[in-house]
Amino acid sequence: MDPAALKGSWERVAAHGDAVPSFFYATLFITNPELRAMFPMSMAGQRDRLVSALGTIVSNVDNIEVVVPYVEALGRDHRRFDARPEHYPPVGEALLATLAHFLGEAWTPELAAEWTAAFGLVARAMVDAAEQAAESGPAYWAATVVEHERRGLDVAVLHLRTDLPYPYLAGQSCPVEIPDRPRLWRYYSPANLARPDRLIELHVKAVPGGQVSTAIVHGLQTGDKVKLATPVGQRLTLQPGSTRDLLLIAGGTGLAPLKALVEQVAAGGGRRRVALFVGARTLLDLYDLPALEAMAANSPWLTIVPTLSHEPWYAGERGLAVDVALRLGRWDDCDVYVCGSADMTAATRDRLLGAGLAAELIRCEDYNDEPYRPGFATGVSEREEVPTR
Amino acid sequence: MTANTDDYGDSAHSGARSWVPLSAEQIRRRSFRETPLGRRGYRPDEVELFMGRVAGEVERWTAAYADAQNEVQRLKYYFRNEGVDPDAPRAWDVTADAVALMSRAQAQADRLIADAQAHARAMQYDARAQAEAIVGRARQEADRAAHAYRVRAGADYNADREQAERMATLGRSILAALSGATTQMDGASAQMRAIADAFAIELGKIITEPEEANAGRTAPPTSPARPASPARPASPTGPASPTGPASPARPASPARPASPARPASPARPASPAP
Q: Which part of the chain is the FAD-binding FR-type domain (chain A) (predicted)?
């Protein structure tokens, strides 16, 4: 393989911007119309993901330690999209036609051979990784909505029951697809530990303009079937072996994974003290207070502090959750978990660092602008509705 | 030997479209007239020997071609079984026009969806801001009404009575804002209007209740210095009304442990936990 030739030609093609994925998908769907159903109605986010994934692979093509795990994760992640081995040849053909189109004269037989070989390797690795993953678990888990409860203005608390046991850790996120929005996956975190009765509680806020979250909050009903794919994320899970006390700071429905952490501490006998600061705008947004109070009622190790930022009449703590936390206590030796919108998370982290807390003790999801990163709930297009938790 | 020029199927001479293949058998059976005496010709035995070889060769290629055709069919069948259409157009056969048309259609669809999303986003933000403004204004009016009552009542002050004043004012203010909003709705929003009307009726009941039940009831657990918020988080069993059930009979109790008297530091073992 000639990495320089691959990188150079990809750079030239990628310079054509959005026209490249547009050409690729148009070619793919004209030659294989049945593949269109595997993609969402709007392809806007999809184009960025294709270019991002191809770019990652090509720019690391000579860096085995990076490219192999990436491609394998890509293959495993494509199981939830129903990708099968026979889908790869038409994709490869459309990719080669796209490269040929944009390279024009520069598309030589040698370059064509390079790309054909490279695509073959990538496709092979993806298929192998997917087949390997198929031995340890399904591509996705079917689940039924057993309860759908509106809380406040724009939040729904869902209870799902998976048909099969669905293993996950407290603090992880699950890709979710609902019947009304096929092919649009969004990440939500269970608010409870994995249970023997296979019940999962999700907190969903209807993000203004959000395609999926609004459909979940306003449209989803008891009895509806949804899909859950393999859970992802390690940033918000409890660190094995740590016995430090916990400071949890939640913004909006960012409460969900932190509530699951509280359950995990409780399941461990409540041997760590936990302070959970629940940030919300107004009283209406404190959508889960009774459940939290019930948890705290029998747990001397647990303190719940709701804080409201837009409720000047509120008799409890007013202001941002992080400010209240810093006012009320010292947290030097705590494991700190922060979950909320991207803005809230970043601002909270900055405040905590400014107050002298050690960066390595502060754990929050790692938001970035990557449109697609298999195995991480960070791509903006799949995350678009989560940041305003 | 019979002369039979038509065995060629005519093709070589006429260049006709209907090409009839020459079979090995036709080659073998092909006979030639003898040349007239005195004219030179090929030796018939050599010609026959060579024709035999040519016929054998054609036979072999015909068989090989049939095998290849069978193999093609078998592969097509295999791919069809695997869900792949072997006769589908190939990527390099797709015309630039088709690609451009398809890309334009998708771009148009993407734009429509994005516009709808942006529109929905703006409406939802507006609605939220409006709801908060209505509640905020109602609270200010309620505070003023409570203050007016305190001034008016003097020695006859009664906490229950103040609370009733407060709630009644709050409800009236929200109701007025809501009925103003419903008149602006067009026919398409009949459902929204129905929800708002139902909400108004419920609110009406709530407003009259404290004044009627006032005398017999115990004081609500909210002190006058601590204005009750009418908008508690919706109770799990409550209806999912857009503004949440506002119950003056149970003024919002702010979260239990929020009192500053109970510092919430689990990090300090010495922290008091009454």
A: 138-238
